[in-house]
């Protein structure tokens, strides 16, 4: 479950508390912005996709020098592609509207045999949340494996699946393994670098059997910040990588795909086939460039805020957080003894009683550039209040 927290605007608190004691009734309110007359400050922790471009990003979008990207003539797109290629240590990258498209293009490129199985984790985004595009469009089919901690897969199982197709008339040939870093469904866990770097076992496996490795790097920059490592080192032995600009990097739209060598001409053709060609896309690339510029600083702050929240006073009979899972910007709260929906509902409710007691009136919670340290503190205060109330009830 994802979480939004309603907090009253601090300046109004004393007056509201006074009013609350005078006026009984209509104590509970819900909604956003203003809840039945109580001005609210929303701490929106549903996802890192809810960010709005700040002034610097908007300015760079307004001032972007553009051209027709369909002709390869948009200078800002070219600048972004070159900057990202350097960051990822790949020959070239290709800017596109979404990470779903970047992943799909990679699958279409690597899986040349129709019906080719794509080995991936059963909870990864590509398997669960991409509308089966690899089957619908790429003619490949997902072969899901159980996700192990940190988004890793069982190597013996991977090898067994790859090896059995060799020389077999019945088993389809495995051409691709897909990994995700950071791993979204496990709460932003980071793939251990040994899984990806030389002599990575996945890489050796891929090399021995000619299988390619694609990395869904929608949150690759979060992983890089968590590992204190250049993204290029993480993707060094991957055969393709995607990167999304509209999560923690804060851009409104955009992603890209990159591969060490070759690939981009074919990827460009595939992008056209999927309807992903863009014209003056520089206005979007400009936002992505701003997102990349301050990525390290902003994402580090997001991770610190998530840690601060996770280490706050969440421990209660109702809620608990496994601190070892908090590696990036996501906190997963385990809820026992009441339905998570109920807790979410309560966290989205503002009451004058709450204002009177706490001075400020937020389950999967994801930190992003629009959430400050102060918001994190307010969210913790709200959480503590709700837990106290639940224990009393
Ligand atoms: C790991 C991962 N891969 C891919 C995507 C899809 O990105 P987009 O919405 O840009 O298509 C997401 C989006 O949430 C994601 O979390």
Give a verbal description of the structure:
This protein is of the alpha/beta class and 393 residues long. The protein has two domains: 3-48 and 296-355, Aspartate Aminotransferase, domain 1 (Alpha-Beta Complex); 55-293, Aspartate Aminotransferase, domain 2, CATH 3.40.640.10. 40% of the residues lie in helices and 17% in strands. The chain has 16 helices and 16 strands. The strands form five sheets. A seven-stranded mixed beta sheet has the order 5-11-10-9-8-6-7, sandwiched between helices. Helix 2 runs antiparallel to helix 12 (282-293) and helix 4 packs across helix 11 (264-273). The chain is globular. The protein starts with a strand and ends with a helix. Mean pLDDT is 84; it is low at 8-32. The chain binds pyridoxal-5'-phosphate. Residues 98-100, 103, 125, 180, 184, 216, 218, 244, 255 line the site of pyridoxal-5'-phosphate. InterPro entries: ArAA_b-elim_lyase/Thr_aldolase, Low_specificity_L-TA-like, PyrdxlP-dep_Trfase, PyrdxlP-dep_Trfase_major, PyrdxlP-dep_Trfase_small. Belongs to the threonine aldolase family. GO terms for molecular function: L-allo-threonine aldolase activity. The modification N6-(pyridoxal phosphate)lysine is found at residue 247. Its cofactor is pyridoxal 5'-phosphate.
